[in-house]
Each structure stands twice: as structure tokens, then as C-alpha cells.
Amino acid sequence: MLQIPCPWCGLREEVEFHYGGQAHIARPESPQDLTDGQWAEFLFMRDNPKGEFAERWMHAAGCRRWFNVRRHTVTHRITAVYEPDEKAP
Amino acid sequence: MSQPYRLPPGNDQDAVIDRSLTLRFTFNGKELSGHPGDSLASALLANGVHLVARSFKYHRPRGIMAAGVEEPNAMVQLGRGARSTPNLKATEVALYDGLSAQSVNVFPGVGFDAGAIAGSLSRVMPAGFYYKTFFGSPFLWHRLFEPLIRRAGGWGKAPTGPDPDYYDRMHEHCDVLVAGGGAAGLMAARTAAASGARVVLADEGEVFGGRLLDAGSAEEQRGAAMRAEPVDGHHPVIEGLSGPAWARRLLDDLARRENVRLLPRTTIFGYYDGNYMTALQRRVAAGQPSSAVKSRERLWHFRARRVILATGAHERPLVFANNDRPGIMLAGAVQAYLNRWRVLPGKQVLLFTNNHRAYGAALDLLAAGARIRAVCDSRADPGGPLVDAVREAGVEIRAAQAVTDTRGRKRISGAAVAPLAPGGSGLAGPAQWIACDLLVVSGGMSPAVHLHSQSSGKLKYDSAQSAFLPEPSDSHACIGACNGTFPVHEALREGAEAGRRAAKDCGFDAGAADLPEVRETPAEPPSPLWLVPDGKPRGKGKSKHFVDLQNDTTAADIRLAVQEGFQSVEHMKRYTLTGFGTDQGKTSNINGLAILAEYLGEPIADVGTTTFRPPYTPVTFAAMGGRDRGELFDPARLTAIHERHVALGARFEDVGQWKRPWYYPAGEDMRSAVARECEAVRQRVGALDASTLGKIDIQGPDSAEFLNRVYTNNWLKLPVGRIRYGIMCRDDGMVFDDGTTSRIGEQRYLMTTTTGNAAVVLDHLEEQLQTEWRGLRVRLTSVTEQWATVGVAGPDSRRVLQKLAPAADCSAAGFPFLEWRDATVAGISARVFRISFTGELQYEINVPWHFGAALWDAVMEAGEEFAIAAYGTETMHVLRAEKGFIIVGQETDGTQTPHDLGLDWAVSDRKEFIGRRSLRRTDCMREGRKQLVGLLPKDCLASIPEGTQLVASGSSGSSPPVPMQGFVTSNYWSTALQSRICLALVQGGRRRHGEWIEAAVSGAPVPVRICDPVFYDREGSRRDGA
What we know:
The complex is a heterodimer. Chain A is mainly β. Helix content of chain A is 10%, strand content 36%. Chain A has one helix at residues 36-44, and strands at 3-6, 10-13, 18-22, 52-58, 66-72, 78-82. The mean pLDDT of chain A is 95. By secondary structure, chain B is an alpha+beta fold. Chain B contains 26 helices and 49 strands. In chain B, the strands form 13 sheets. In chain B, strands 8, 9, 11, 12, 13, 14 and 27 form a 7-stranded mixed β-sheet that branches. In chain B, strands 40-41-42-39-33-43 form a 6-stranded mixed β-sheet. In chain B, strands 44-47-46-45-48-49 form a 6-stranded antiparallel beta barrel. In chain B, a hairpin with a 3-residue loop joins β12 (266-272) and β13. Chain B is elongated. Residues 217-232 of chain B have low confidence and may be disordered.
């Protein structure tokens, strides 16, 4: 089980968190101009890398804040934790 | 009663048993005795009991093969009634006075077992038997094969009642966790503990020491072998002490330290990411009662900064014909029974080995007075100090020979020994039978790399040791036998080094390692012999070469798997069942994959191992549940009015964690109660506890803009004091929740959500504010449990409210629909909302939570003159269904758009909101989507269960596939309509009102007419009351 360093509460057990999938998916400026295919791409298609992955977590049983995590999907090593509107380090 | 096979104590004191006390126990009804410290297995052997079980598939007689958790055969059922525990290994059951054990999977008894006929049918029951035999005839399967197999297969019996015992759970953080308390583990724990680090040492055994306990006392060994150097008795001498004595000394040292937690009888069974480990501690013997202060089992959750695995190794048997009879035992196990428990497993002994370990057992057997007929060694030229010592003791050593067959019904009585052709590929001569009552086998050691592998550690095949060894890992160290390091002095060195480094990694200084002086006999490398030839091609003839004794998998089964294309080790495992069961193949996995490699002609390293998964040994469900059972399984949320409902005799239903009144029977059945409650609301007045509805306080200058984005309709112009219904969609355009939101102030709103969805909606809203719309100045707070709510509904509800709030203007004009008012109701400051989920005139009175019961009492008292009735969720559902109001989660399953539900009126086309783009997807706009409709059955009494499929009229009976046109989502008896009514989702349903279709109720299809989902008061004339 992971231990996740919440930027506000420190290192906590994974069970306290809620997973939010891939981070840095920019919401389209004007969705109405997109084709169904482009919209579906935004809505459903996610990366599934073997290696470093930027993803969203929420400290549901703690401060309830959303933040981003950079995690290695093989080793589960977490190398960065940052705010939702920050750029990936 | 006399334990005829118990040996006198050695010169040293007994390592684990206490002879001053005698314990009585029964096995299959027979009275036997043993001593504290015995395992059930050692006590059975002390009484000369070898036949303890029957095998899984062929019901062959089986005995005790091992001394630890790797035992594949000796499974027993313990205790009686609700405390009965099936499938325990006799080797891991600690003996206690009054223990009662039975063999499992035998009928009528272990001595004569009717199921043994399966053995003679084995030719028609090969690997994959199930898949091959039972295609085609469902009748034969259900009536014949399944009942037969269920009777013959399986092991013990389930207990007869709920588990009466206590189980609990502990969480522990430590610096260094050491798994395994043998030589290496003890040394690692001592070294780390000396630094001041917090150390946990866990071992699955009753007593710490691991295989050190299987060595006799040093003095005794000297006496037996009568030599100085180099054999020096063949057991290691550590700091001048015997193995057990040294282990005791270290343990005494550890027990004195406050920074050390010692956990015997504790098996670490899971190793997860981040050094998270789980362990099962057996605190009260199986079958014995526990108490609230002493749980039977405890599940430990460890988070360790550093982990040291000292989990030891399992000895492998050898695979030859009929290698499964009682009286065939592993060499290490024989040494354990001799030295640890002082039990003699046999008197006429034959040994068969491919390595030096059996020679140690031979010396111990000689010292115990057994007669050794011969040692068969598959190696051409066995040598080394142990071999020399055995030879000098006058024992015949048969080099390059193998046991090729055995005989004996309930216990081995003889074995065939034949010379091996060079290379071990065949036999070089005829076999000779040798009589024996014990056959000791050793096929080499398999390091217990299970925990290492669970943590994603890699393995590498080492051909010198004929074993898979762990590769170094960042998260932990493997030391001692589990690292393939068998000599004690090297294991101690690894232990000291690992303990020192682990302490250092945690910021502690363990100083220089102080290594004990060890004298021991040098080890010789093994020479593998995976499958003993017997002169016939495997699979021919009647004899079986067992690989996995627990699952009755033979070498022929593996060959068949290969022939039939199941050549990957994972496929072979599943096809033949090798490595399944309660022992998880601890003695069979490596033999199985090595034989697979032999058949495939591939190196073992390329075949690889199957995946090791938790748990390492079986864990009871009760231990995993701990105290979270019954009432404590899930928290129950009760409203402030709960006790009033109880007093009224309400039946409750679970809605999420809430207990909600379902209906209030007054000496009547549910149907009558609901009919009465419905009539009260439609004709007079009813009261509902609506406190469980989710309530979210929304504040901030951008609140209106926020609501405008999360709801599908327009929120920018809602005046203060007004209420609006809204629908939330997810980004995919599907309905997610609905409810009303009231504007409380310029910058403040109160949102209500579905009871079961309150937390999910709050999460959804918080996510948007924190991630997508970080600029919006809005704050959210759940106030569900701040407000108690009583809904008062029905034509007389205005009169009831007016009585309670004489100062308020309750007139239709003064307090219109979809508005809210502050009022004093029954002397309590309240907020009253005029909304309706019933179609009737309705007020929802909100008061601070702790006034809930007082408000309820006041409402019921004021309503008495109008014959007010309390109504529950069932009546609420009927009334809302009569009005065609949806319930999210009942009429929806996450694939309905607002349009599908006929809620277009609540969707704005002039603003952006979550889900808007998706509603314009081609698929969301196509004709023929399933739409919400009402259904009236032709037979007004016909009940159509929710979920029933709807098909074209007359097509229920046609041959499949019958096109499905939709399904029923709600089904009620409507008192107002005097008919069953249904809500349903039907393809293109909105244009099909008046059409007849068919509900495919099993056996009796029901014709139904599609209609508008609003069954009652379509004009809405009742909303403002009379």
C-alpha cells in the first residue's frame, strides 16, 4: 500500500486518499466547437505509461484538498507533489 | 496413553516440550496423550500414528511428511460446532488438553475410505478432467457429477454456526521488522535492537529458533559421533552452546529490551508497497474459546522503515513412484521430530537423497537407536564429512541408486531400490526391495522467497544450489536460508550485517558486528534429481509419481499438460492444480516446474516460477473482519427522530448508512400499511422524516455562477427566498444527481441532494472548485446533520402548519410553491420550504438537529385532529411514482441523459454547464434511446418485478434472441389508481404512449400499455391544496 505525502498533512496511508486519474488534462476552451471524436478524446482517453505518471489525488479522510503527484507506475516511488494549477516539475 | 515412540530427553534439557505435564487429546475418537510444546503432528507420531489423512482426489492414505507450514498431507478438523475449524495442518496445531481432531475428507473413516475407489478410476480422471468430461449434458452434470464430486472432493466441513470468538487488529510502526526468528533473524534482531532502534521480530513457530531447534544438544552430539574435528557432532555449536541453547540466550536478551516486540505464533503473510506488511497472530489455540480481553487471532498491520526477511527454506521431496505413503518423510522434518520433540518416527529406516542433508538425519536416527537399512544417494560419488561419518557408523551407502517404488497400505513397508544409469536418465539394473517403516527423503532446499517475491523482488535460478534465490532489493534484505545461505556462521554474519545496516538506515548506530564463534560441518553442494526414472515411460502403468501431494498432481499430469499445450508455467499450474490449496505448493512448486522444464527441454531458469501472492499461509476471514462484524460492520446513522419511529413500530430500511423508516405497520402487513399511509397523504395529511436528505451550505460571491455551471438549468436570476429544482450531469452528459436548491441570501444557497448521494455530490463540487474553477469564490459545507427535517404533506398540511406557526402567513398566496420562509414552528426557530415530492400540498420544516424530536412530536400532536399518519420511504416512493418523479439510482443507472428522462425543461441551451457538450453527441441525440414512460398492466393486479425486460407483444415465447426494448425501473401498487403501476425505460418510449408491449415475467408474460409517467393529477391541481 502506498504512502502519499499530502502537501498539507504530510505522509499518510493510501486509504485516506481518493484517486483522481491523470493530471494536467486541459479542459477545452469551447467544447461546443469540438467534433464528437475530439470531445471523446478529452473525456475518455487517458495515458497509461509504464514509468513516471502525473496523477491527481485528494486527501479525502484528511484536509480534503486536491493535489498532483508524480508517481512511477512500476516502483510506485513518488518523486513530486504539487498544487493542481502548478506545472509538472 | 504411553507414547511408545517418545525418546528420553537428551543430555541437554528438552528444547520445547515439558514432560512434567501430560495432555490428553483424541484423534478420530481415539484417546492419546502428549506434552505441552507438542504439535498435534509430533504428538501423533509419539503415539505411533502415521495414517492421518486421505488425499484430495484419489483418497490415498497419507501421513505426516513435514514439520511446519509446508505440510501438504496431514490436514485435520479441530473442535466442534460453531468452533469447528477445518483444514488445519497437524504440524501447525499446538497441542492442548482436551483437543479433539478428526481426519478430513474421509468416509466412513481414514482407515477404510470408500472414496479410495477414485484411485482405481484414475485413468479416466486425468488433469483437465473437469473440462473434458462435463461438456454437453447439463442434466448429467447437475444430477450426477456435481453431487458426486461435491461429496468426494474438498476437505473439511464448515462450522455449524456463526463464529462465536473474538478477533482483533493492531497497527504498528517500527524501525526494523524481522520476519523469521531462526539463526539469521535472531542475529539481525539482536544487532538492530542493540542500536536502540524499534525492532519487531515475528516467527510463525511456538518458540523462536527456527531450524536451530531441530539440532540436538551439543553434548549429545559429541557423544553420538564420538569424534573431534571436523564433524564434531554434526550440529552447529554456537559460542559453545547447542542451537536451542544459543537461541534461548539470544531470546532472553531480546525479551529484556523495551525497544523490541517479540511475536511468536505470528506469520507474516503479506508484503505490500512501502514496507507495509500484514501478519496473523494466533493467540488462543484453534478450537479453544477466546474472550473480549483475549482475542483468538489478531491481524497485525506493520509499516516498517526497514524490513529483513529471514524466512528460511523448505525442503523438497523426491518424485518417484508411490512417493506418497504414510511413513515417507522429509529429512529435516525427521530431525525436527527427533531433536525438537524427542519423537522417533520409525525404527527400520531407509534414506533416499540427492544431497548431504539426509546424512545428518541418519546420524540423528542412529543416535536415537533406529536401525538404518541403507542410504540411497542418487549422486555417483557422495562425499564429505557427513557422508564419511555415516559410512564409519557402519551404514550401507548405495551411491548412484534410487528408490523407484514403494509398498505398504496404511504405512510404508518396503521400497524398491535400483541403480541409476549415468546421467540419471534411466535405470541400470533391476530393483531390489528393502523392508522399512520409514523412508526419509531429501531433494534439496527451496528458499522461502514468498515475501520477497510479493514485494516485487526478483528471483534468479542458481544452478549450483538448484534453487531460485532472491536478487537484492531496495526495500529489504534477505538473509540466511531464504537467501540460499545455509551454513549457520554465514547466516549469522548476514544477520548481523543486515541488522546493523537496517539500524543505520533508520539513524541508529549498531556499532561493529560482534560475530559468535560457530563450529559446524561444512555443507556439500546438492546434485538435482527432479524425476526418478522407474523403467517405464511416465504415465504408463499404474504407479503414480506425485509432485503435489495436496492436489494429487502427478508427473504424468504435467506431461499431459505439456502435450495438450499448457506449456507456460502459469498454464501448467492451473491445468494440473500444482501449487494450489492450503499449502500453496511449498514442497511441490519447484519440483513441478523443474519437471515441466525437463518435458519442455528448456532450462529451469527460462521456465520460471509462478507468481507468489499473499497470503503466505491461510488467513481466516474472521481475522480479516476483526471486530468489524454485526453491528460494528458499518456505522449506522440515525436521525434525531429515530426513537420516535422505533416507538411507532416502524420497519427500517438502509439508505446508505442511514436507517430510514420504511413503513409503520399498525398490526397489518406491509401492503396494507403502505396503502393506509398513501391514503392519509392523498386524503388528509402525513408526516415524513426527511432529515437524511443531503444538505450543502454554499456561500461566497460567485455562488450563483457556480450553481449555474454544475446544474443544467439557469441559476443566475433566482431571487432570495425562492427554490429551484436542478439536475446535475457528469461530463459525459449522464444524470448524476437531482434536488432542490434554495437561495438563502445574496451570497448563500442551500442545496439538497439524494440521501445516498450526499457525500459523492459534495466530492464532485469540491473537485470542480479546487481543480477546474480555482478562481471562483465559493465555499461548501455539509449541513446534513445540522438540520432535522419533517415533511408535512397532504391537503390538510396547511392547517397543521398554521396551528404550529400561528404568526406565519401560510396561505397559498402568502407562501407560494417553491418558496421558503423563516418561521417559528412549535416555538422552534425553523426554516420552512414549500416543495413537493408527492404532488400534494407539502411543507418541509427544518429545525436545528436537536429539536428534531420535539418538532416531530408537535407535528403529530397538531395533526391528530386531521388523523395524521407517519409515512415511510415506501409510501414516499409510491406517491412520487404516481407523479412520475424519478429517483436517481432507481430510474437511472448512469446511462440516462436529462432528455431520456423527459427533463428537457430543466436543461438550458444558452449557457455552459458540466455535461453540455456531451448532450450534443450523436449518440445522445439519436432516435430510439430508452426513455422514461409509465406502464399499466392489462391485469391491474399483475406485479412486474423491477428489472423485468420489455419485449414486443407476443414475442416472449419466441426462440431467442428476442430483442429487448427496455426494462422496468419501479413497480408499485397504487392505492389512488387501484392498479399496479410501473415506471420503465423503453426505446423511443415517449412517442409510443398507448402502445401495448409485453413484460417478460418468467413463465407468465404480462401485457402492458405504455403511458405517460405521470399517473396522478397531471394538471398539478393538488399542489396548492384545498
